[in-house]
User: Fold this.
Amino acid sequence: MIKNIRYIFVAALLTFSFLMPTLASAAKLTQVGVRLGRLGISSGSGGASDNNDLLVTFKLNTTPTSVGKISIAFPSGFNMTAGTPAVSTTGFPATPASITAPPGTLTAAVTTNGANAGGAIVVSGLTSASLVNSTLYGFIIPAGSITNPATAGQYVTTVESQTSGGATIDSTTAPTYVYGASSNQDQVVVSASVSPNFSFALSANTDTVPAADPSAIVTSPGVTMSVGTNSPLGYTAYVKSKNAALTSAATSGSITGGTFNGTADTTAAGTTHYGFLPITGTACGTCTGTLTYDGEYSGGGGAFISAANQSGAFNGTSFSSFVSRSGYTNSDQFTLKERVTVANTVPYANDYTDTLTIVAAGNF
Assistant:
């Protein structure tokens, strides 16, 4: 009789031992992700470059409409800051599967097991009746709640779906790795440089003043000057007249310039005058600072000459600056013209000429 009882007991014990792993093993969530914002050791102070926010993603499994909470338990080594951080459900990163905010009004509670002894974050307030097991849900716990361990290595977190009363429904372990010999070993500092640049072009190399007579002020159509630079100090443009006058080889006649004194010259029909007239053309698309015309070529206040009877004189046969920008520009455009009046004492001829040298330089 006793022997039979022994056999029965042993058989029952064996049967229980086979069943025990199944009974003890909880079901898993369909998918879990625990992404720390920083993987460097001791990261998580919440500074501008140490933003250890926590992203948790999950797909539910068993009876999703019973889930009211998600718990994330952190092992020893993590330092948790007890409190109720705000839960964010916006600003999710782009992933192959879109992350959806769980339905409900989410709140979080952080508990700690002691200094560097781990703890847990429990997010409550999920609307159970609206949950499904086919959607990848997610939420973000802001920086300041978690500080990584001071020792590199793998650490295993445990994510659970729970009832609103805190009973476990499904449970999944999600390893993460803390890396490096210092807190910034998970970062790459990117350095770059931009070369200084400067561009300059003239649309043409000839410009013809209409035939002049004592009854009118005549102005050439002009050529277009384009200047670009990425210097925050901008650039300056310069002009130089070869002869400081329009001269005729055939008659030895000369149409001289005005007075170079920092102020634009005013002329009238019937007088003799040869002047330079730079004016702003198409506005730059991307630029900073301001354009300023030198006083000799300005109608006032650094603006270009707009009066029909004014122009600037040349600085003899030397360069003079005529316009500058105080910032960078993708392209400034100017129309550079010449303005002429003649007295009836200027011999007629069709070979009056001068050569203007137009240059510009970036200010670096």
About this structure: The longest strand covers residues 329-341. Confidence is low (pLDDT under 50) at residues 1-24. The longest helix spans residues 2-24.
